[in-house]
Write a structure and sequence with these properties.
The chain is of the alpha+beta class. The protein has 6 helices and 13 strands.
Length: 277
């Protein structure tokens, strides 16, 4: 019975971990996510400089000072060692300094608002977090989509984000840098997909009953496929005007992906700074 329980627990753990493989921060698909993974690995390596020796020394001390070891010297009056004090304070101090340097440099190099250097012209996408779905507006292309984001590979994407309800958080782990969306404010995030693929996105901030449904897919496609998607969307999608937006803004869990063939050009500005009546 015990063996069956252990096997069942192992299988359950495997089922929970397996879907996450290849879809997290350790599987970067863009330069921002790759740089963030490097910071994570560097910070882990720096901390292991302290963690591993502490583990080894703990086991070594426990073994050496066991009751049966008559060679271990018992010194009840010992109280101070300058050499030990130097080691126990200097190494953690160096670790803190190195971690601070890694964090300082990374926080400036990976500033979400910092535009990415590329020969390709960036595209602008306006993001609105709703209850409980994501609205993506392409202002220069005149289209919009819900819970579906299509971007060309190798092209910098400049996101401008806000919330129409409560504070939320936009996060595509394989592309990097989660950032908050707040009502009445617009934040900026610059990302780039380095290769074609479908990358899961989600809300990383609890925002109510339908929070778990706030998931979307980022389709990174070649430029020709991106242009084809834009053409199909303009032909087939309905218009996203004030009336359509008022319907869309109603709370809705597990919202289906949909597209809009045209968008009110001033819609995003009105969402950020709504007119009070």
């Amino acid at each position: 019975m015990r063996s069956f329980s252990l096997v069942s627990s192992a299988l359950a753990a495997t089922c929970l971990v397996a879907p996450c493989r290849g879809q997290g921060v350790l599987d970067p698909q863009g330069p921002i996510a790759a740089a963030e993974r490097l910071i994570l690995l560097n910070a882990t390596a720096i901390m292991l400089v302290v963690v591993l020796p502490v583990i080894v020394l703990t086991l070594a001390f426990a073994w050496w000072y066991r009751a049966s070891n008559t060679r271990a010297a018992y010194q009840p009056d010992w109280s101070y060692s300058g050499h030990i004090e130097l080691v126990t304070w200097a190494i953690p101090a160096m670790v803190v300094i190195l971690l601070a340097a890694v964090g300082w440099i990374g926080s400036h190099q990976l500033d979400p608002a910092r535009k990415l250097q590329s020969d390709a012209r960036s595209i602008r996408i306006e993001v609105v977090s709703l209850d409980w779905k994501w609205l993506f507006i392409y202002p220069d292309q005149g289209v919009a989509a819900v819970n579906e984001l299509v971007i060309p590979t190798g092209v910098p994407v400049e996101f401008v984000l806000t919330s129409a309800t409560v504070m939320n958080s936009f996060f595509v782990p394989q592309l990097g840098s989660q950032i908050y969306t707040m009502p009445g404010m617009a934040t900026r995030l610059n990302l780039l997909a380095g290769r074609p693929g479908d990358y899961p996105g989600l809300s990383a901030n609890f925002s109510g009953d339908g929070f778990s449904d706030m998931r979307f897919l980022v389709h990174a496609v070649p430029a020709a496929d991106y242009d084809s998607w834009l053409a199909r969307t303009r032909e087939a999608g309905p218009a996203l005007n004030a009336d359509a937006y008022s319907q869309l803004a109603r709370p809705e869990g597990n919202a289906q992906a949909r597209t809009y063939g045209s968008v009110d050009p001033n819609l995003f500005e009105r969402i950020v700074t709504p007119t009070e009546h």
